[in-house]
Amino acid sequence: MLILVTGGTGYIGSHTCVELLNSKHDVIIVDNLVNSKAETVDRIEAITGKRPLFYQADAADDNVMDLIFATHKPDGVIHFAGLKAVGESVEAPLAYYRNNLLSTIVLIDNCIRHGVRHFVFSSSATVYGDNQVPFLETMELRPRTNPYGETKAMCERILTDVARVNPGLSVTLLRYFNPVGAHESGLIGEAPQGIPNNLMPYITQVAKGILKELRIFGDDYPTPDGTGVRDYIHVVDLAEGHVAALEKAVPGVHIYNLGTGRGTSVLELVRAFEEANGLKIPCRIAERRPGDIAECYADVTKAREELGWEAKRGVFEMCRDAWRFEQSYEAGE
Ligand code: NAD
Ligand code: UFG
Hints:
Elements: E1 2-6, H1 11-22, E2 26-31, H2 39-48, E3 53-56, H3 62-72, E4 76-79, H4 86-91, H5 93-113, E5 118-124, H6 147-164, E6 170-176, E7 178-180, H7 199-208, E8 214-217, E9 229-230, E10 232-234, H8 235-248, E11 252-258, E12 264-265, H9 266-277, E13 283-286, E14 295-296, H10 301-307, H11 315-328
Parallel strand pairs: 1-2, 1-4, 2-3, 4-5, 5-6, 6-11, 7-10, 8-13, 9-14
Antiparallel strand pairs: 9-12
The structure holds nicotinamide-adenine-dinucleotide and uridine-5'-diphosphate-4-deoxy-4-fluoro-alpha-D-galactose (UFG).
């Protein structure tokens, strides 16, 4: 299949392009480079030996997208493009609603106009909010109260409504848990701008000496060691989940959790990182971070049974590969 990948030079998108190309699909990337670099295309080529077509363009620009759809006639779309920083979304809600909603509307509209039958959307475990773990696809959504989380729940609703009146269309909503790690080549990975918000890139920057110590946000949660529990998933497993979802897609709306089904606490992740890489991470217990929940992990039965996919890589590989990428990556490179 020929797959149009929006956000394909970003963190999860670039790894998915690699897995698509390795699975003999062809890839066109659309990315406006607001949070990534064009050289990622070279790196995807270095890993796979195949060069995806690349357009530096805004996925919310209807005229440009119409032209790209008309020119290339893709078989499917995977829509990664979006803004994703929770804190920033509280400060700049309009930018988040505009970018995340408009790009989704423009893309699904183009799919219908141009007869594209497969649409895969990057959703998030954030839509489950404070439901009881493990999170199941059938649970009522309670998106965490920030504009970013709201955009994910709203996009899911828009796409579900559109699929209902377009019976030939397949819409797959993939709810990611906590993607970490990097491609084992060390060529692509997560390169956040500024001080990272997320745990793994924070740890790797402490390991590298860029940041002094890790603040652990709360040790009084009702979890086994008091620190927050998350379902970390290796980004290459996540990328493989997209290929499985695309290849199994049938008309209708299909929702899958992409996680490992296992919870790991902050302290456990720090210890695993130290063991995997033979390093020490200075830590300090700090206040809870506003908006955090105690536990977040997936029930992954549906993806396993229907897609025949499950995560293969463990926390050791996640820590090893995240550190390998951090060492090879120079900020601003
Ligand atoms: P990322 O920022 O690395 O990648 C997103 C890419 O989209 C970037 O390359 C950016 O330049 C591009 N982009 C943003 N707006 C665009 C637009 N209007 N037009 C074209 N390109 C645009 O983020 P990521 O971690 O790879 O996340 C990919 C998707 O997965 C996002 O939709 C995100 O919300 C979702 N998601 C991420 C996580 C996570 O923890 N990383 C968790 C759940 C869901
Ligand atoms: N944490 C720390 N110190 C840090 C950073 C994080 O202790 O410096 C803790 C958090 O309190 C939490 C855990 O590490 O317990 C994971 O935090 P992250 O920020 O890495 O991830 P979140 O689970 O908070 O959120 C991520 C994405 C969201 C997405 C969600 C899906 O940032 O966009 O996963 O579950 F919605």
